[in-house]
Amino acid sequence: MGVIIRRYTDADGEGFRRVRSMAFRSGESIDPEDKLLRDDCIAYVGVDDGQIVAATTVLKMTASKQGLDLPCGGLAAVGVVPEKRRSGIGSKMMAEILPMMRDEGLLMASLYPFRATYYRKFGYEPCGKRYQITCPGHRLPKLEQELEIRQIEVNQKEQIAECYRQFSMRYAGMNKRDDDQWWRLLGGDTPLAVYVAGDPIEAYAVFRLNGDFWVSQQIKELVWNSARGYRSLLSFFRSLSLNKNDVEWREPGDSPYLERYEDQGAVISIWGNIMFRAIDVPKLLATKPVAGEGEFSFKVLDSFMPENVGPWSISFKDGSVQVDQCSEASFELSIGQFTQAFLGEPSLESMIRNGSVAVPEASRAAACAYFHAERTYCMDYF
Ligand SMILES: CC(C)(COP(=O)(O)OP(=O)(O)OC[C@H]1O[C@@H](n2cnc3c(N)ncnc32)[C@H](O)[C@@H]1OP(=O)(O)O)[C@@H](O)C(=O)NCCC(=O)NCCS
Known about the structure:
- By secondary structure, the chain is α+β, with helices and mostly antiparallel strands.
- It has 11 helices and 18 strands.
- The strands form 3 sheets. Strands 1-2-3-4-5-14-6 form a 7-stranded mixed beta sheet. The chain has a 7-stranded mixed beta sheet with strand order 8-9-10-11-12-7-13.
- It starts with a strand and ends in a 12-residue tail after the last helix.
- Bound molecules: coenzyme A.
- Coenzyme A (COA) binds next to β4, α2 and α3.
């Protein structure tokens, strides 16, 4: 009968733990008390002849987009037991969970790839950029600390949540965290240090203080909603860097560090880019806020979810969008390109410039206005 992909049930615990153990925990047994599936998770399993041979978890999150919170499923721990790998089970699971996720009301999916090439086959594409900045202490900019820096307790997370919310509004793809997701971000049972700038808070940094000398001090999360908040924390990083090799943190594609403060000696790399995939194209199209007016038609190439193909005619004016299925499309986008264009980075305009998408001149202005550029970023790791 072949492998069946279905939603996890309580009776699957043992098989689910075995997949997790064999794929991610060196074969060590996992205590049934170990909460592998938290309340914000959905899980799927692959069953072969009554045995669970594959599993994955989907974390319920959101992806911000122009003030909207789009339901988004974050895929984690995609695994197949070693004896069943390379026979198509992983691919079958990746394909068949897509409509199941849509039926849960998810409009988007996201993941951190072990290799982008594997997930690209299923329609995922990297969206946005994340720069990792590793800056030797003596190369950090000498900035005035304009705002007072203080430490807050992790149980005072409401104080930083507003700063995070405002930061999130500036990017597509950001997750609106629930309490449990905040708890995990802040270190869970082994709380991290949280330092904030200003009152009300205009910037914050979350990190585990590294007690060793001449090592890297890593910052888990840096968020700011004002330029002086950002500068104050960068100034504070100089204090953190004393007797350390460097301070390491991450910033989005419109990084203020790269814009104004970069110096010789700092190492900048692209770090762990997230991939997204649109799951419910018609709903996304109808949901998207858009300014200006225009009309165009296009088609989405999605061999996994025919409901996404269209062709779609889009007509927008004064903030409202009319989406209809039509018979002819003036251009086509793969589902991955659609996802990138929808979120906004890389934008449709940059794809046209790169020659990866051909849009007829007559449709170009309207299509680029609808799929306009927007910085895309996600700070949640899963
Ligand atoms: C990754 C994993 C889930 C794939 O499952 P699977 O059932 O083995 O995958 P499939 O049989 O559907 O596909 C395997 C094919 O993908 C190809 N593939 C594997 N990695 C790839 C990559 N990085 N890029 C492109 N193709 C890749 C393989 O070459 C293989 O094709 P082949 O048999 O022609 O060589 C599974 O190997 C696994 O559990 N690995 C360990 C855990 C892990 O790394 N999980 C992913 C991180 S979240």
